[in-house]
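task queued by scheduler; priority normal; single chain, no ligands, no partner chains; default sampling; output format set to structure tokens
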Amino acid sequence: MIRFLKSLILLPIAIVVVLLAVANRQIVTISADPFSPEPVFALAVPLYAVLFAAVALGILVGGIGSWFGQGTTRRRARYHRREADRLEREAAHLRNVAAVNGQTGENLRVPNRVALPAPR
């Protein structure tokens, strides 16, 4: 079902991209020198290549910006994942100690723990 929905969305996009490329085959000159009428370094490429490169650059810059923006969320997730792993190991250790000492869940004594600092 997901594959069908992807096809349903991506097929029209692919058709539009191909039509854009076919309709914009004119050669344009790209130069980094805005003041010279005859630039020393100029690149002649089809217009659709310029458009596709601009879109790809926008996607890349947007993705990098989004990745940096979510850094705090990733850091908190790592902290909580490590804390959950530590607590699982501690619970397993306490179960092993209780099993060795013959204690059941009702009379198991758990040492008091200090509250953990909040993540930064």
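post-processing summary
- DSSP finds three helices and two strands in the chain.
- Residues 26 and 46 are 5 Å apart (CA to CA).
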